[in-house]
Amino acid sequence: MEEFFGIPMEGIALGAGAATAAVFAFLGWLYLRNPVMFRYGLRNIPRRRVQTTLIVLGLMLATVIMTAALGIGDTVAHSIKSDAFELAGETDVLIDWDTEHHPVPQDARRIPRALVDELRQRFAGDPDIEGFLGVIQEQFAVVNPRTRLNEPNAWAMALPTAEAVPFGGLRDLAGNVVQLSGNEIVINEDLAEALDAQPGDTLVLLYEGRPIEARVKAIGPTSWMTGITQPNAGGTPGFAADYEFVAGILGWEGSVGAIAVTAPGVVEEGLKHSEAAKAKLEAALAGQPYTVIALKQELVDLANTVGSFFTTFFMIFGAFSIAAGVLLIFLIFIMLAAERKPEMGMARAVGARRRHLVEAFLAEGMGYDLAAAIVGAVLGIGVTYAMVTLVNRFAESGFGVRFEIFVSPRSLTIAFCLGLLATFAVISGAAARAARLNITAAIRDLPEAKPVNPEAATLFGLLRGVLNALVAGGFLVLGAVAAARLPALLPWATLAIPSGLVGPFLYVLRGTNFAHPRSERLEGERIPLWPFWWGLTAPFYALALLLVWLVRERRPSRVPAWLLLLGMLVPPLGLVLSAMQEPRRPIPWAVGFATVGLLLAGLLFEWGLRENLAFPFGAALSLSALWIAACLRYFRYHERSVFTAVSLVLLAFWLTWPTGIYDGVTGELNGDIEMFFLSGIVLVTAGTFLIVYNADVVIPALAGLAARLRALLPAVKIAVTYPLAMRMRTGLTVAMIGLIMFSLIVMATLTRNFERIFLSDDAKGGWDVLVTVNPNNPVADFRAALRDAGYDLAPIAAAGAMRRADITEAQVRRPEDASLSRYWFLGVDDEFLRTTELEVKTLAKGYGSSRAVWEAMIADHSLAVVDQTALTGGDGFGLPEDVLRLGLRLANGFEPFPLVLHDPGTGRETTVTVVGVVDDASTFFFGGIILHADTLARAYPDARVQQFVVRLVPGYDSREVAKAMEAALVQASAESLDELLDDQRAAQAGFLLLFEGFLGLGLVVGIAALGVIAFRAVVERRQQIGMLRAIGFRRRLVSLTFLFESAFVALSGIVLGLVLGVLFSWVLFTSGGTGDEETIGAGFTVPWLHLALICAVAFGASMMMTVLPARGAASVAPAEALRFE
Length: 1125
Fold this sequence. Notes:
Structural class: alpha+beta
């Protein structure tokens, strides 16, 4: 994998590595400058080992998620690359017929063999081209008379082996070069296994019903030269044969189907020459009906693209866990600060500075961080291994891809560094917050007294808060967004960005001795030197020092409001006004940053509406709601009412937006998988506010419930009261658990509903067995062919014939459109139409039922039925850009409309009339536009894929019948539709388990948070425990109090995630918000049993984490606890 979100991985690795090195160098500098405080911070790590273990488990999650996501991407990319190199071998470039610009019938796409010799002579000695090889690829049915085994679809690669030397030659399993002549062939391992063949066997090849004998000279590896045709095509039977032998069978003497080109060097080295070789060949073949394909490079690019897709997918889903991890880090350091408050107060009293406390916290935090990053990287590799092993197990049940586990050192470096840096950033902010304390209050362990702000709840105070928030970072963010999205604001942005780089350092200096006037400065105090140490920040810090030095003796007592407004519009003036403030003057940061968020929301609104993007629009609306709440709270409106109302509005908006109800106002906005993350964050945040501010309403209900068990009533009341008194801790923990549960519930619910639609028994359309015929050996009469092969027709109740036109063989357009699109077509015969049970979910005017549509198609061969994907284009990964997208939403009674079918080989066009939309379930086996077989044969004569579907007489096993039919028809393979559905369901269930396990890693965070809170609560409430014991609480009741407390918090998060997840899934699924409009009107099912299991596991794990601290609380001796200070 070479890119992530469009950024080169090498650049990410270098940047993350450099930043990590800078962090460690900075910590080393702190240690050398003040080793005492550094060791003071580190000594806390081994003192409470259980708590340290919980902290490391919580902090490691970001690294685990990133390692696993990048590891999956590496594994997928590496596996596809390996298969690509195996497929291509030393073939770097391919010359093929240009079907786009020179459409001709398939049999006419022949390249003269003489061109191979011409090119070989022309490019002899060229540094970018080493050799040319003319080849033919074709399908044969193969029978081994010795073992009586057959393979209906074996790919043959016909080549002159004497000319294959520059390509490494045709080799057997021992690596020996093999030369072929006459009817000699080299079979690959898959064909040898299918036929139980060995060297010396005489096989029978079937082509157009003619048997041709071929002798097995050797067995070779499954590769391009032995018939493998596409990456990840393990299990592809094939063989290599002499060119003259196959050309004589096909009537292709003197012609080839493609010309392979190899560049100097072995397999991977040839990539360096691919582009140059392609350019030279295109110039040489200009004006001829051929196209030049950089085959190996395109396969490598495909591998990187798919790997990047998987990484992005897992990273976005893992973002919920990472977000929960960030909350946990913040929570841990809030609690550590609360625990160490008296200790820090005494340290300050004996001479320690605030920065000394920050340094001690940083040292302790980085100790946890480093351990968590190392453990996380190792566990991330383990998670990758487990996930890939699980995926490979699905491969055995029909998924068709096997991955080779591979995690690159580069990805490990990125995951380790980014996980460590993310944690360090949060630790730095939490350390700075923890170090701000009142010495007296800290020593006495009293709540911090908030300084009186005479400007509170005033418009002037609001303006000052906004100006400070802009200077502290708002100018930088707004300037960057404005410069990127609004050229009209570029002049303002050129002032805002430099001001935003200087502004934060004003607040670094704000509380220092340097910022005070001469009369208040202390002797011997130095300015903070660390901003100089970072190098890039030094010039901006120097400007901040100069500005503070110029204004510290010239501070006015008051600045007029109009000047504050002007400072917001003119960023350099805002810097000066901010520097001129009294250092001890309180700043309303919350409302200030909320207003900056509102300004940012304005820019995001404009961006989203102008470019029809849902993400910036949704983020903007959420930021606006935050501003409303912060402003109303600042002006002292009832806090509970404010946050309840804003939360309800946000919940209502995000639960109705996917339905398209606001499209009339905003227009149709486009979003992708990132909207899942944004919507989850906003919904869970709003839900958490709703719970935290209104949880007291459940106390009477809980008390009433507990009243029936009077012995438990005191424990229940105390258990609910404490979390409500600690709103921040409770809210953070509820949000962590809620985020993870939300992602798990949505994933499980949507997956089960998609399975219900697309993998139900309705997908079979009333058929039981699918028979696929070798295209070069068609079956004219299915029943007659079985009878002639000695098969008893008694199990067959009905048999329908089908012929498929692949997306590469068929083009289509609306009559009013000139541009052509590509699509799949399925031609069916009269017996299929008479007996099928496929449902037509949307009927044209004049048709009252599905049966009426099928009967009409028998009478009128110009009628057709489309699937939902043809209407909307679907949302499948890897669909070509020119796939058919009619852009229609049809309802019953729609007016039939025409489609023009265009044959790319002859240019001939055929018009059909669409009279229905087939049910979504049918697309699994019968996807595409369904029309009569005669119409398909006339419209697309090159469509050669022939299939039959069989309905069995009740009582017969479809699996056994399929095996018997395949044994009878040597040119066909037969599969049970029940078995295919079961395999797909097993793969679906396995992938659901895989994703649930990956997302469930985040539960470690919530569980660790509950454990940390429970351990801290035992210490924090030691005196309370003593008093409870003293007034008669037994040990069991004290233990239950702590268990009920954790249960209340855990259940709040679990229920929040469950309710929001089910509601959001319902809205997405029933409104087509998942990107699949097939789900509209398809109903919705909640898999309650599966969701109950998820919730039970989450709740059980949470309770297990609380048992130990609860038992510790119960073991506290009353006398000792009452003396505790």
